[in-house]
Write a structure and sequence with these properties.
The structure is a homodimer. By secondary structure, chain A is an alpha/beta fold. Chain A has 14 helices and 16 strands. Chain A has two domains: 265 residues, 3-Layer(aba) Sandwich (Aminopeptidase); 150 residues, 3-Layer(bba) Sandwich (Glucose Oxidase, domain 1), CATH 3.50.30.30. The N terminus of chain A is likely disordered.
């Protein structure tokens, strides 16, 4: 009996050892291909420099969809198609302006996405609050004023996404919470650790119970300046913004597919989102995820890997201000009764890989974690329970698909996020490529062993 | 017996558990201090922007030493002093020039450090070799020519330091190996993955058996251009460099000390090097290591941590082209019969922390590795056998001191290394600070528990 158990053990070990070697070799092949012949960086250059910002509804959105279709084909998709969905069409409408006229100081501001324009210029006294708690305590002082939320991006969290989660409520609901007490507009301190003065925009959501009021993000230096000045004396700020919605338009998810050789009806999804905010080029957010997604397609073809399951490479529409693309993708999957076994998203920037966040069962997580030693040489050293990204969230909710998101190093992400410096020059070629290497390796393992 | 063992186990576990909690709390305190009140970034700004490049022998070397002394004092050292050592004084002597006159193309080149000037312009046919092997095979063609080493920085190694180790021989000994066969000068492809055209300088060492010939690094785009042109036709390059040595001068290690409360005669060293190559600001190499070193001193004082062992914070002189500072530090330690229990260096750039490389016994390595779970929340997830940095190498060789070096993420290091873009703007504040956090945490643990 003992010998028998021992024999099984040895035999298991031998098989496992062989598989490990085979998998290591395949992952090395994938890595060498991407690091030597990679196209992700050149593709990102085209997307950012030739097309540029591509907010839902813009001309560039259409250009980006066409570019995506062409690239799916060139990269070796068995087929590629557009999946239509209606997307909101918010426009900035002009140059956002804010000034403290009494001190002749122009403030660097950007209207928040989805926010309403001021119409004519608003001039009103500013009330600074450091938190929602302070807003509630001073609610009687708010009427007729501009509320300046000066809530700090917490430096003590190591993951900057934790600081973001902590602070983003001021951007998302700050306007309506101030409008509730009669504020005329809000100025929101940008969610960033950066040392520059670029304001960081992003979506707000109005609470329909209250009046819609203008809302702008302000750069960090100007936020500190305004805060300092308000210690000395009361101030009036003049604000003019022109944001508004046009009619919704047709947008599209761009989908490329490698059809599975053994399980064509079992689908693995990889994706990033094609839209971006308007002030910059959307290089990290989420040009990186887009070109990494396409790079995995190109690489599987280049190394001759034929997936057992169907793999869909998806460039999602409208992540930033509506999530219509991700929602449409999941709804159609449900309507067609598709079987989705896994989805992976890259939407945290093209930075050096560190981890993967996973939303699925404990057993599935354990299986993923058993592969960490295969990924670690390429950067991913931990896979933790968490969630997938925004675009594959609906797939998880509607179809219970296990989802994951790449967690690259987060230190620089909020230097660029939704700001005018989210440009190609701030993406490092190697970091971008290594992200694609780890994504491709993970997909290879899931395709081979299931989940 | 069983109960007794169980009791010991529980008691050990409780103690260990308490210590872990206490250590976690202390490391969190250190981290919060650095990430909230850190001075490393401002100090780096001063070193790079107010002082700038500080090659051994330059006026800026003296300025940097004076700045270092002042900062040690301001940051709370019990005492600070200069440790004198003679340093070489190589100067570039002018603007390095290279041109393919027949095609009216100026090449972007930088003379290698320690290299001899061409005197008057050298014009000679170019022979391209892709490796030393090729040089040996074609040695009969070399006489009277300029050898162009076009050896590629290997993209398939994940750690860029591996690519560097693989390629740096062309910079170090390429000139003499070509001179052996009668070459007049060498052009060396820069050791970098960067997408720009900046040439990367660095030290060469002449083999005294052969004639000293001029040597330049060439930017990657120009290297590719030159390689392409040489496929089409033979070319002559004209080269002019003016590098030469002046008399050696007095330089200094800058040393600050916190005297140990229990073991004042047992010394822990932390350091980076103060000198830098002349084309840029030496921001990553090694301004980062310098300001991180001082930041740990400041932080220990700020959080009220009184080390049991003596901790020396050392800004080493002349790492780049002589290692005189590191050598002097170890020699004096040996002469004075000092007891050095550990040394830690930061000289791989101010990038996000990932690992630590350790040179010491297997038992010591195991002890260090037992602390990884305490460091992991701050970025360091692995401690591997390897070595310390260059400056503490002599301490390891002469006194058998266990040594370690920070291994931050390496992807961007060789975009900047010894090139004109190694400037303050390319250092991220948070990454720099997190390096200091992990270094401080490691030193705290070694001071508390010994090694």
């Amino acid at each position: 009996m003992k010998n028998f158990v021992f024999a099984i053990f040895v035999s298991l070990f031998a098989v496992n050892s062989f598989s490990q070697t085979e998998d290591s070799a395949m992952i090395k092949k994938i890595s060498d291909e991407i690091l030597t012949n990679g196209k992700a960086y050149d593709n990102l250059r085209h997307l950012t420099k030739q097309i540029g910002a591509r907010l839902s509804g813009s001309t560039q959105m259409i250009q980006a969809e066409n570019w995506g279709m062409l690239l799916m084909n060139e990269s070796g998709a068995d087929k590629e198609w557009l999946q239509e969905c209606m997307v909101p069409h918010w426009v900035r409408g002009g140059k956002d302006q804010a000034k403290v006229k009494s001190l002749n100081k122009t403030l660097d501001v950007l209207a928040l996405g989805n926010s309403i324009g001021s119409g004519k210029e608003i001039s009103a006294p500013v009330i600074l609050v450091n938190s929602f708690d302070e807003l509630e305590k001073r609610k009687d002082e708010v009427k007729g004023k501009i509320v300046f939320y000066n809530y700090k991006f917490n430096p003590t969290f190591i993951s900057t996404f934790q600081s973001y989660g902590d602070a983003v409520g001021y951007r998302g609901s700050g306007a309506s919470r101030a409008a509730k007490y009669g504020a005329l507009a809000v100025i929101v301190r940008s969610m960033s650790h950066s040392a520059d003065n670029n304001p960081h925009t992003g979506a707000l959501r109005y609470d329909t119970a209250f009046k819609k009021i203008p809302a702008v993000a302000i750069g960090l230096r100007d936020a500190d300046w305004l805060s300092d000045q308000l210690q000395k004396s009361k101030l009036t700020v003049s604000l003019k913004t022109d944001g508004h919605f046009l009619d919704s338009v047709k947008g599209n998810n761009v989908i490329g597919e490698l059809t599975g050789s053994e399980f064509p009806n079992e689908i693995i999804t990889i994706g990033g989102h094609l839209d971006s905010w308007d002030p910059a080029e959307g290089a990290h957010d989420d040009g990186a995820g887009v070109v990494q997604t396409i790079e995995i397609l190109r690489t599987f073809k280049a190394v001759g890997y034929k997936p057992k399951h169907t793999i869909r490479f998806v460039l999602f529409a409208n992540e930033e201000n509506g999530l219509r693309g991700g929602t449409k993708y999941a709804e159609e999957a449900k309507n067609k009764n598709e079987k989705h076994i896994f989805a992976l998203e890259s939407d945290a920037g093209g930075f050096t890989p560190r981890g993967v966040s996973f939303g699925g069962s404990a057993e599935q997580l354990k299986k993923l974690q058993s592969w960490v030693s295969l990924l670690q040489p390429y950067g991913v050293y931990e896979i933790n329970a968490g969630g997938g990204g925004a675009d594959i969230g609906p797939l998880n909710r509607l179809l219970k698909t296990p989802v994951a998101e790449m967690s690259p190093d987060s230190q620089r992400y909020f230097d660029y996020h939704h700001a005018r410096n989210d440009v190609f020059e701030n993406v490092n070629k190697r970091e971008l490529e290594l992200g694609a290497v780890n994504m491709a390796a993970l997909i290879y393992l899931i395709d081979k062993y299931g989940l």
